[in-house]
Write a structure and sequence with these properties.
372 residues, alpha/beta, six-stranded antiparallel beta barrel, 9 helices
């Protein structure tokens, strides 16, 4: 933790095993721990949902755990902030034909911005979370690194963590494998030791994201054409919000060869489809960027064409490329074409010379189709 024993630390407690173990380990180590839980979405709708976080049963579990640990615990009602900064953004992104990643937006706003302010107001020297990433201190200050347990690594979702925030944040579980965390929970006698991990997007009931979008942005369900890259109209769809780049199933059109969604034109309400090779991307442009590297800025790193490993999906390994200015904007040019790059998704950047180190990243604004 790099803090003296007795220092006050705010532990973000979601009610799951990871954040509960984090709070328990800090308390056992002699820190002055204050647990804080955020209520982020409708308590009534979420109370029966399994594998959620920040609502319903999870708030109860966090409160019970804090009582057992003998630490103070606060529940903050952030529902309106979460709706404005995460849920509304989620719906708007789909309406623009993008594929959003709300977990990044949540970390970027209500958790690592708003909650950090609360931690400082409580007089804490640091805020600790149960995320599986590592914070290491290099010559230039704190760095963000991938977790020791590659299967649990959450660095992709935390690319937007700023250097200033890293100076205040701590991630005690980053060097541990998940089985060790559950074993620690059992040894500490925590009731959540066998609790299932959170699944899917917390505010999306049963994985049906269209249910949320239809409620927030019903105009997303306006019908339009499914169009082939060659201009042929192949059929109709029931709203651009039903589709994402790379999607193959549920198109309800057939021309013999498999077709994939290669572009979504929200303005004209067209879903453009084509063969798999049309998904290949040679470069991408970034927006809402964050830089954690050694260069003075991301733009300076782009001008120097710094080599990077770029991760365009949470489930995909980083691909080699170089930072570049593309149409005057920061971007990545891939060494080999990358498939299924979707606007709205995150692109996390890693250092080839130290593949665990996160250099920052951004949201994907657009992609440059590979010329094969």
């Amino acid at each position: 933790m790099r803090l003296p024993a007795g220092s006050r630390i705010v532990a973000a407690m979601s009610g799951g095993v990871d954040s509960t173990v984090t709070a328990a380990l800090l308390a056992r180590a002699g820190y002055d721990v204050v647990g804080v839980t955020l209520q982020l979405y409708d308590h009534g709708a979420a109370i029966q949902k399994k594998g959620a976080c920040c609502a319903g049963q999870d708030i109860h579990d966090a409160r019970t755990a804090a009582q057992g640990l003998g630490i103070p615990h606060y529940v903050l009602d952030y529902e309106s902030r979460f709706r404005d900064q995460v849920m509304e953004d989620f719906a708007d992104a789909y309406l623009r034909g993008e594929t959003p990643i709300p977990c990044v937006r949540c970390n970027q706003t209500v958790k690592f911005r708003d909650l950090l302010d609360v931690a400082r107001d409580l007089g804490a020297e640091a805020m600790a979370t149960g995320h599986y990433v590592r914070r290491e201190v290099g010559a230039g200050g704190p760095q963000l690194h991938r977790a020791a347990d590659a299967a649990r690594d959450q660095s992709y979702f935390l690319f937007a963590t700023t250097a200033e925030q890293l100076g205040y944040l701590r991630f005690p579980l980053g060097g541990l494998p998940k089985p060790a965390v559950r074993a620690a929970a059992a040894e500490l006698g925590l009731a959540v030791a066998d609790k299932p991990d959170s699944q899917d997007i917390c505010f999306v009931p049963e994985g049906r994201y269209t249910t949320v979008i239809d409620r927030l942005r019903p105009q997303g369900a306006l019908a339009g054409d499914i169009v082939h890259l060659d201009g042929r109209v192949l059929g109709r769809h029931e709203g651009v919000t039903r589709y994402t780049i790379g999607q193959r199933r549920g198109l309800n059109v057939a021309v013999g060869d498999p077709l994939f969604v290669v572009r979504i034109d929200a303005d004209s309400r067209q879903v453009v489809v084509g063969p798999r090779e049309a998904l290949l991307t040679s470069a991408l442009i970034l927006k809402e960027t964050n830089w954690l590297g050694d260069a003075a800025s991301l733009e300076a790193a782009c001008a120097a064409q710094r080599p990077v490993l770029a991760r365009v999906r949470s489930t995909r390994e980083p691909a080699p490329g170089r930072l570049a200015l593309i149409d005057g904007q920061p971007g990545v040019a891939f060494d080999n074409p990358e498939e299924g790059v979707a606007p709205g998704q995150a692109c996390a950047l890693y250092a080839p010379e130290d593949p665990s180190r996160v250099l920052g990243g951004g949201f994907i604004a657009s992609a440059v189709r590979a010329n094969l």
